[in-house]
Amino acid sequence: MPRLDPTLERWLIVAGWSAIVIVWHTTLVAGLLSIWRVLRRRATAPRQYRASMVALGACVALAAATPIALTSARGGPRVAKSAVSPPAMVRNGCACGTGTRWPVTG
Fold it and tell me: CB of 55 within 8 A of CB of 68?
């Protein structure tokens, strides 16, 4: 399969992570709304409607802000460097770095 253009690939990654984060955010907002509705069981219909509209507005605002926040993060994700270099790990015929030779069974 041919590789995608790096710019397109980056935006596909941002779109995928945005979808995951937006689902998480909207789940939290829905949970907060449901807790409010349990605590305010006797709230009038107009008050419940307003609370639902505030929750919907929060979901839309979070959905709009998520890709912006993901693309404006400084530095982006970084790969951690290994503390042990690969040649040091295999010295003296062992792969553990301690110099201990393990018996080979076969």
Answer: no
Q: Is 53 inside any structural domain?
A: yes
Question: pTM surpassing 0.70?
Answer: no
Secondary structure in 3-state letters for 73-106: CCCCCCCCCCCCCHHHHCHHHCCCCCCCCCCCCC
The total of structural domains in the chain comes to 1
* Domain-embedded: residue 92: no
Q: Is residue 46 part of a domain?
A: yes
Instruction: Report whether pLDDT(104) > 70.
Output: no
Identify whether 78 is part of a domain. no
Quick one: tokens of 82? 């290994």
Cα separation, 14 vs 68, in Å, equals 10
3-state secondary structure of 103: coil
Hey, how many other C-beta atoms are within 10 angstroms of the C-beta on 66? 19
Here the tokens at position 6 are 């790096």
Question: pLDDT band for position 74 (50/70/90)?
Answer: low
